[in-house]
Design a protein that fits this description.
binds adenine; binds zinc ion; adenine deaminase activity; A_deaminase_dom; single chain; alpha/beta; 52% helix
Length: 355
């Protein structure tokens, strides 16, 4: 199997096109965060709702965030236009078409049922709409798409437990559970029982940790929740013992660079710790998080990182995409197939550069 050093000599000028065309997986995308302002307005009109913004441009102009909470307030307001099964389908289908154009061959998609059930939308309505889009993506786009149900951590664990039970009639339609929303003040251990229940049900486990929260939250996501991936995890670098543990276990970190800039986790992309995460031997990969709010989809994230961070070279590019497959919850045979296509794309870029 090739490794990153094989591809370090690909010229930087060849990387944008290579990154754009290469196959990749996206493992950290909140489907409600893919709702573009145009679609928010269209759905509001279709559902007879009025919005507190005069136009698409006025809504987009409000996307200036100072931290995670300032984003979440507007993100939950945007999601309030989703009422019918068709609305959930339209949102997910728009993302999946966009992802396929970015070379995404596999997506593991977060959804926040409590954002909708709290407004009276039945669980079946939202899951069936999302499921229909995932099935169509497989059939028409050749993109495999699966769902991960996220609990809102600013709400209680009892509410998370009730949400999981309410979703069980659709158990076959999601592969795992996650933990998102306001991180500070809501440590992973608050959700110990619901994650134990999900584990007993055979669900995969992931959690946001170390986005705004301290390394201690990453430790408890690992030790108490027993997660298989950390979403974000960029603050892990503050704790050398944690870095050693993450590296030894090849614990994936689903990093979201443009999100981190828009939510002021780092001042600029040039200051992002993505190169340091990779050079520490961590299984980091790039994702879009909430692309409609943060100014870019997966390829935009990749391209802007490589533009802003001169430390990144072709070896890092291969490693990031290879990590996206390694970290996915798919059968080894499928991973091998995608990995082979990735290796071939990089090999041919290397040959083109040499000739
Ligand atoms: N970046 C993020 N962090 C926590 N919760 C979220 N929900 C949507 N995007 C999120
Ligand atoms: Zn996220």
């Amino acid at each position: 199997m090739p490794g990153p050093s094989d591809f370090a000599s690909i010229p930087r000028s060849a990387l944008p096109a290579l990154l754009r065309a290469a196959p990749k997986a996206e493992l950290h995308i909140h489907i409600e965060g893919s709702l573009e302002p145009e679609l928010i307005f269209r759905l509001a009109q279709r559902n007879g709702l009025s919005l507190p913004y005069a136009s698409v441009d006025a809504l987009r102009a409000a996307y200036a965030f100072s931290d995670l909470q300032s984003f979440l307030d507007i993100y939950y307001a945007g999601a309030s236009v989703l009422l019918q099964e068709q609305d959930f389908f339209d949102m997910a289908w728009a993302y999946l078409e966009r992802a396929a154009a970015d070379g995404v061959v596999h997506a593991e998609i977060f959804f926040d049922p409590q954002t909708h059930t709290a407004r009276g939308v039945p669980m079946g309505t939202l899951i069936q709409g999302l499921r229909r889009a995932c099935r169509r993506a497989e059939a028409e786009l050749g993109l495999s798409a699966v769902l991960i149900l996220c609990f809102l951590r600013h709400l209680s664990e009892d509410e998370a437990l009730a949400t999981l039970e309410a979703a069980l009639p659709w158990r076959a339609d999601f592969i795992g559970v996650g933990l998102d929303s306001s991180e500070l003040g809501h440590p992973p251990e608050k959700f110990a029982r619901v994650f134990a229940r999900a584990r007993a049900l055979g669900l995969h486990l992931v959690a946001h940790a170390g986005e705004e929260g301290p390394p201690a939250y990453v430790w408890s996501a690992l030790d108490v929740l027993k997660v298989q991936r950390i979403d974000h995890g960029v603050r892990s670098l503050e704790d050398a013992a944690l870095v050693a543990r993450l590296a030894a276990e090849r614990m994936p970190l689903t990093v979201c660079p443009l999100s981190n800039i828009k939510l002021c986790v780092f001042k600029s992309l040039a200051e992002h710790n993505l190169p340091a995460l990779l050079d520490a031997g961590l299984c980091a990969l790039v994702n879009s998080d909430d692309p409609a709010y943060f100014g870019g989809y997966l390829n935009d994230n990749l391209e802007q990182c490589f533009e802003a961070l001169p430390a990144l070279h072709g070896g890092h590019a291969w490693q990031l995409l290879s990590n996206s497959f390694e970290a996915s919850f798919v059968a080894p045979e499928r991973k091998r197939r995608w990995q082979a296509a990735l290796d071939a794309a990089f090999q041919s870029a290397l040959s083109a550069a040499a000739s």
